[in-house]
Amino acid sequence: MLKNILLGYLNYRPMTGYELKQALDTSTSFFWHAHHSQIYTTLRQMEKDGLVTSTQKAEDDALRRRVYDITDEGRNDLRQWLETPMSEVSHVKEEFLVRIFFSGQRDPQKVLAELHEQHKLHTQALDNYQNLRECMPAHEHSTLKGTRDHIFWNLTLEMGFLYEKMYLEWLEMAIKSVEQT
Q: Could you read off the pLDDT of 125-158 as tens digits, one per residue?
């Protein structure tokens, strides 16, 4: 998946590994994240596979930055991935739900404390999505405003917002259920 995300960003413009990490951190990290090491490892493999090329660019501060650019083969790979319909539901790994599933033997007060902590964290996440909604016009990618890309970026933002609202509703229901046991 990371390969496809990196190809998607490089399809907009050439970028350094650092710029790609920043792009992920301010957009897709809400539903897919990656560490610096994963990004650079994936970029090296993509270059070996002919999906990207790279050039070193000397900076004023004597740093040599590697700039990656998508190749025609990379664009074809990205297009093929985008055009292949997903015929299954994406499975989500949710560690917290696994903990709750097995919490029947736990002290209810500890479970409640954890549920309240999760409520706090998901409230913060919801606030972050709300802030993104408000800041989107000033976002670095605002040059996409009015484009089809912008429409789809907003759709993923709205999914995140609605997901957090749903998660908070579930947490409130879970808190009430545990309080009644």
A: 999 889 888 876 555 455 666 678 888 888 988 9
pLDDT in tens, 82-127: 999 999 998 888 899 999 999 999 999 999 999 999 999 999 999 9
Give kind and range of the element (H or E) at residue 17.
helix 17-25
Among candidate residues 73, 55, 51, 76, the one with its CA nearest the CA of residue 64: 55
Phi-psi region of 62 (alpha: psi -120 to 50; beta: other; left: phi over 0): left
Distance CA 112, CA 6 (A): 40
Q: Which 3 state secondary structure label does DSSP give 6?
A: helix
- Residue pair 157/125 in contact (Cβ under 8 Å)? The answer is no
CATH number at residue 76: 1.10.10.10
Q: Are residues 66 and 138 in the same domain?
A: no
Cβ-based neighbours of 77, under 8 Å, separated by 6 or more = 3, 7, 51
